[in-house]
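Escalated from tier 1: D-glutamic acid holo job.
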Amino acid sequence: MKKNNPIGLFDSGIGGTSIWKEINKLLPLENSIYLADSTNAPYGLKSKDEIIALSRKNTEFLLDKNCKIIVVACNTATTNAIKELRASYDVPFIGIEPAIKPAANNSQTHRIGILATKGTLNSDLFHKTSASFENIKIIEQIGHGLVQLIENGDIDTPEMFDLLKTYLKPMIEQNIDYLVLGCSHYPYLIPQIKKIIPPKIKIIDSGEAVAKQTKKILVENNLLNLNNKDVNHVFLTNSDPEVLKSILENKHKVIKENF
Ligand code: DGL
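Tier 2 regenerated the structure:
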Protein backbone atom coordinates (compact mmCIF):
# COMPACT_ATOMS: atom_id res chain seq x y z
CA MET A 1 0.00 0.00 0.00
CA LYS A 2 1.36 3.44 -0.91
CA LYS A 3 1.19 6.63 1.14
CA ASN A 4 -0.25 8.43 -1.86
CA ASN A 5 -3.27 6.11 -2.03
CA PRO A 6 -6.48 7.81 -0.92
CA ILE A 7 -8.30 7.63 2.38
CA GLY A 8 -11.72 6.09 1.65
CA LEU A 9 -14.78 7.30 3.51
CA PHE A 10 -18.38 6.19 3.28
CA ASP A 11 -21.69 7.18 4.81
CA SER A 12 -25.34 6.54 4.10
CA GLY A 13 -25.33 9.97 2.51
CA ILE A 14 -23.95 13.46 2.86
CA GLY A 15 -23.55 13.51 6.67
CA GLY A 16 -20.12 11.89 6.74
CA THR A 17 -18.74 15.00 5.06
CA SER A 18 -18.71 16.45 8.61
CA ILE A 19 -16.04 13.81 9.32
CA TRP A 20 -14.31 14.38 6.00
CA LYS A 21 -13.97 18.09 6.86
CA GLU A 22 -12.27 17.30 10.18
CA ILE A 23 -9.90 14.82 8.52
CA ASN A 24 -9.07 17.28 5.76
CA LYS A 25 -8.36 19.98 8.36
CA LEU A 26 -5.95 17.74 10.29
CA LEU A 27 -4.44 15.92 7.30
CA PRO A 28 -4.46 18.39 4.39
CA LEU A 29 -1.93 16.38 2.36
CA GLU A 30 -4.08 13.27 2.12
CA ASN A 31 -5.98 12.30 -1.02
CA SER A 32 -9.50 11.04 -0.43
CA ILE A 33 -12.54 9.36 -1.94
CA TYR A 34 -15.91 10.02 -0.30
CA LEU A 35 -18.86 7.76 -1.01
CA ALA A 36 -22.37 9.06 -0.30
CA ASP A 37 -24.74 6.10 -0.46
CA SER A 38 -27.74 8.44 -0.45
CA THR A 39 -29.92 6.08 -2.48
CA ASN A 40 -29.95 3.75 0.50
CA ALA A 41 -30.37 6.42 3.21
CA PRO A 42 -31.39 6.23 5.95
CA TYR A 43 -29.39 3.27 7.24
CA GLY A 44 -30.82 3.89 10.69
CA LEU A 45 -34.10 2.15 9.88
CA LYS A 46 -32.51 -0.93 8.29
CA SER A 47 -31.78 -4.29 9.90
CA LYS A 48 -28.28 -5.17 11.10
CA ASP A 49 -27.86 -7.60 8.19
CA GLU A 50 -28.86 -4.95 5.66
CA ILE A 51 -26.43 -2.45 7.20
CA ILE A 52 -23.62 -5.03 7.06
CA ALA A 53 -24.38 -5.80 3.39
CA LEU A 54 -24.38 -2.10 2.44
CA SER A 55 -21.18 -1.49 4.41
CA ARG A 56 -19.49 -4.37 2.57
CA LYS A 57 -20.62 -3.00 -0.79
CA ASN A 58 -19.21 0.45 0.03
CA THR A 59 -15.97 -0.98 1.40
CA GLU A 60 -15.38 -3.16 -1.66
CA PHE A 61 -16.01 -0.20 -3.96
CA LEU A 62 -13.42 1.86 -2.07
CA LEU A 63 -10.90 -0.99 -1.98
CA ASP A 64 -11.24 -1.34 -5.75
CA LYS A 65 -10.11 2.29 -5.91
CA ASN A 66 -7.01 1.36 -3.86
CA CYS A 67 -7.94 3.13 -0.63
CA LYS A 68 -5.27 2.63 2.04
CA ILE A 69 -7.62 3.01 4.99
CA ILE A 70 -11.42 3.05 5.32
CA VAL A 71 -13.22 5.56 7.51
CA VAL A 72 -16.73 4.41 8.29
CA ALA A 73 -18.10 7.96 8.57
CA CYS A 74 -21.45 6.75 9.88
CA ASN A 75 -22.34 5.83 13.47
CA THR A 76 -25.05 3.42 12.32
CA ALA A 77 -22.69 1.49 10.04
CA THR A 78 -19.92 1.50 12.66
CA THR A 79 -22.04 0.28 15.54
CA ASN A 80 -23.66 -2.45 13.42
CA ALA A 81 -20.98 -3.56 10.98
CA ILE A 82 -17.41 -2.60 11.86
CA LYS A 83 -16.66 -5.90 13.57
CA GLU A 84 -17.65 -7.82 10.42
CA LEU A 85 -15.71 -5.41 8.18
CA ARG A 86 -12.54 -5.74 10.24
CA ALA A 87 -12.85 -9.52 10.13
CA SER A 88 -13.31 -9.59 6.35
CA TYR A 89 -10.89 -7.09 4.83
CA ASP A 90 -7.17 -6.65 5.30
CA VAL A 91 -7.10 -2.86 5.61
CA PRO A 92 -7.29 -0.57 8.67
CA PHE A 93 -10.80 0.67 9.54
CA ILE A 94 -11.67 3.77 11.54
CA GLY A 95 -15.16 3.93 12.99
CA ILE A 96 -17.30 6.61 14.54
CA GLU A 97 -19.27 6.09 17.73
CA PRO A 98 -21.30 8.53 19.82
CA ALA A 99 -18.97 10.46 22.15
CA ILE A 100 -20.61 9.28 25.36
CA LYS A 101 -17.32 8.95 27.25
CA PRO A 102 -16.20 12.62 27.22
CA ALA A 103 -19.77 13.75 27.93
CA ALA A 104 -20.22 11.33 30.85
CA ASN A 105 -16.79 12.08 32.32
CA ASN A 106 -17.36 15.83 32.31
CA SER A 107 -21.03 16.05 33.20
CA GLN A 108 -21.77 17.95 36.41
CA THR A 109 -25.47 17.12 36.45
CA HIS A 110 -24.76 13.42 35.72
CA ARG A 111 -27.35 13.60 32.99
CA ILE A 112 -26.46 13.61 29.34
CA GLY A 113 -28.61 13.50 26.23
CA ILE A 114 -27.91 11.56 23.08
CA LEU A 115 -29.52 12.07 19.73
CA ALA A 116 -28.84 9.25 17.26
CA THR A 117 -30.50 6.92 14.79
CA LYS A 118 -32.60 3.92 15.80
CA GLY A 119 -29.94 1.61 14.34
CA THR A 120 -27.23 3.14 16.54
CA LEU A 121 -29.26 3.30 19.75
CA ASN A 122 -30.40 -0.32 19.32
CA SER A 123 -26.93 -1.71 18.56
CA ASP A 124 -25.06 -4.01 20.93
CA LEU A 125 -21.98 -1.81 20.69
CA PHE A 126 -23.93 1.23 21.87
CA HIS A 127 -25.57 -0.74 24.72
CA LYS A 128 -22.19 -2.00 25.87
CA THR A 129 -20.68 1.50 25.93
CA SER A 130 -23.64 3.19 27.62
CA ALA A 131 -23.92 0.44 30.27
CA SER A 132 -20.38 1.19 31.43
CA PHE A 133 -21.45 4.59 32.86
CA GLU A 134 -23.55 3.43 35.77
CA ASN A 135 -23.82 6.71 37.64
CA ILE A 136 -24.83 8.74 34.58
CA LYS A 137 -28.40 9.01 33.35
CA ILE A 138 -28.33 8.83 29.56
CA ILE A 139 -31.43 10.23 27.92
CA GLU A 140 -31.69 8.61 24.51
CA GLN A 141 -33.65 10.06 21.64
CA ILE A 142 -34.03 8.66 18.14
CA GLY A 143 -33.79 11.45 15.59
CA HIS A 144 -36.74 10.22 13.51
CA GLY A 145 -36.84 12.03 10.17
CA LEU A 146 -33.73 14.18 10.66
CA VAL A 147 -31.46 12.32 8.21
CA GLN A 148 -34.17 12.32 5.53
CA LEU A 149 -34.63 16.09 5.86
CA ILE A 150 -30.86 16.70 5.69
CA GLU A 151 -30.58 14.45 2.63
CA ASN A 152 -33.29 16.56 0.97
CA GLY A 153 -31.36 19.73 1.77
CA ASP A 154 -34.05 20.84 4.23
CA ILE A 155 -31.71 21.86 7.03
CA ASP A 156 -32.74 25.40 7.87
CA THR A 157 -36.50 24.88 7.72
CA PRO A 158 -39.39 25.29 10.18
CA GLU A 159 -40.08 21.55 9.89
CA MET A 160 -36.54 20.73 11.04
CA PHE A 161 -36.75 23.28 13.87
CA ASP A 162 -40.04 21.81 15.14
CA LEU A 163 -38.72 18.25 15.05
CA LEU A 164 -35.58 19.23 16.92
CA LYS A 165 -37.61 21.10 19.52
CA THR A 166 -39.74 18.01 20.13
CA TYR A 167 -36.65 15.84 20.60
CA LEU A 168 -34.60 18.25 22.71
CA LYS A 169 -37.22 19.68 25.07
CA PRO A 170 -37.50 16.55 27.25
CA MET A 171 -33.70 16.48 27.59
CA ILE A 172 -33.60 20.14 28.63
CA GLU A 173 -36.34 19.47 31.19
CA GLN A 174 -34.31 16.61 32.62
CA ASN A 175 -31.36 18.94 33.20
CA ILE A 176 -28.75 17.51 30.85
CA ASP A 177 -25.52 19.47 30.58
CA TYR A 178 -24.11 17.61 27.55
CA LEU A 179 -25.80 16.77 24.27
CA VAL A 180 -24.06 14.06 22.25
CA LEU A 181 -24.68 14.10 18.51
CA GLY A 182 -24.51 10.40 17.64
CA CYS A 183 -24.97 10.67 13.89
CA SER A 184 -22.52 12.18 11.40
CA HIS A 185 -25.36 14.09 9.72
CA TYR A 186 -26.25 16.01 12.89
CA PRO A 187 -23.30 18.46 13.14
CA TYR A 188 -25.04 20.28 10.28
CA LEU A 189 -27.92 20.94 12.69
CA ILE A 190 -25.80 22.71 15.33
CA PRO A 191 -26.93 26.25 14.38
CA GLN A 192 -30.59 25.13 14.72
CA ILE A 193 -29.93 23.20 17.94
CA LYS A 194 -28.25 26.25 19.51
CA LYS A 195 -31.45 28.21 19.01
CA ILE A 196 -33.29 25.62 21.12
CA ILE A 197 -30.98 24.59 23.96
CA PRO A 198 -29.63 26.98 26.61
CA PRO A 199 -25.93 27.87 26.24
CA LYS A 200 -24.99 25.95 29.40
CA ILE A 201 -25.64 22.67 27.54
CA LYS A 202 -22.53 21.68 25.63
CA ILE A 203 -22.78 19.94 22.28
CA ILE A 204 -20.28 17.20 21.41
CA ASP A 205 -19.75 15.23 18.25
CA SER A 206 -17.02 12.78 17.32
CA GLY A 207 -15.52 14.39 14.19
CA GLU A 208 -12.29 15.70 15.71
CA ALA A 209 -11.64 12.46 17.61
CA VAL A 210 -12.12 10.44 14.41
CA ALA A 211 -9.63 12.67 12.56
CA LYS A 212 -7.04 12.23 15.34
CA GLN A 213 -7.56 8.47 15.35
CA THR A 214 -7.19 8.35 11.55
CA LYS A 215 -3.86 10.17 11.83
CA LYS A 216 -2.67 7.85 14.60
CA ILE A 217 -3.47 4.70 12.63
CA LEU A 218 -1.87 6.09 9.44
CA VAL A 219 1.31 6.89 11.40
CA GLU A 220 1.35 3.44 13.01
CA ASN A 221 1.02 1.79 9.61
CA ASN A 222 3.59 4.08 8.00
CA LEU A 223 0.92 5.36 5.60
CA LEU A 224 0.82 9.07 6.43
CA ASN A 225 1.20 11.19 3.30
CA LEU A 226 3.87 13.80 4.04
CA ASN A 227 4.63 14.98 0.56
CA ASN A 228 1.78 15.62 -1.84
CA LYS A 229 1.88 18.49 -4.29
CA ASP A 230 -1.31 17.54 -6.05
CA VAL A 231 -3.95 16.73 -3.42
CA ASN A 232 -6.98 15.08 -4.98
CA HIS A 233 -10.46 14.64 -3.48
CA VAL A 234 -13.20 12.67 -5.20
CA PHE A 235 -16.83 12.88 -4.05
CA LEU A 236 -19.17 10.25 -5.38
CA THR A 237 -22.91 9.94 -4.88
CA ASN A 238 -25.50 7.53 -6.24
CA SER A 239 -28.24 10.16 -5.90
CA ASP A 240 -28.82 13.83 -6.77
CA PRO A 241 -25.37 15.52 -6.56
CA GLU A 242 -26.73 18.98 -5.77
CA VAL A 243 -27.22 18.55 -2.01
CA LEU A 244 -23.77 17.03 -1.57
CA LYS A 245 -22.32 19.88 -3.61
CA SER A 246 -23.99 22.50 -1.44
CA ILE A 247 -22.93 20.86 1.83
CA LEU A 248 -19.37 21.09 0.47
CA GLU A 249 -20.02 24.81 -0.12
CA ASN A 250 -19.64 24.26 -3.88
CA LYS A 251 -15.88 23.93 -3.41
CA HIS A 252 -15.63 20.41 -4.83
CA LYS A 253 -16.75 18.54 -7.88
CA VAL A 254 -19.32 15.81 -7.17
CA ILE A 255 -19.72 12.86 -9.51
CA LYS A 256 -22.84 10.75 -9.80
CA GLU A 257 -22.05 7.06 -10.11
CA ASN A 258 -23.91 3.80 -9.55
CA PHE A 259 -22.49 1.79 -6.68
N1 DGL B 1 -24.76 9.47 9.10
C1 DGL B 1 -25.39 8.27 9.58
C2 DGL B 1 -24.99 8.00 11.03
O1 DGL B 1 -24.02 8.56 11.47
C3 DGL B 1 -26.85 8.35 9.34
C4 DGL B 1 -27.50 7.03 9.40
C5 DGL B 1 -28.75 6.92 8.59
O2 DGL B 1 -28.66 6.97 7.38
O3 DGL B 1 -29.81 6.72 9.21
O4 DGL B 1 -25.60 7.23 11.74
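The mean pLDDT is 97.
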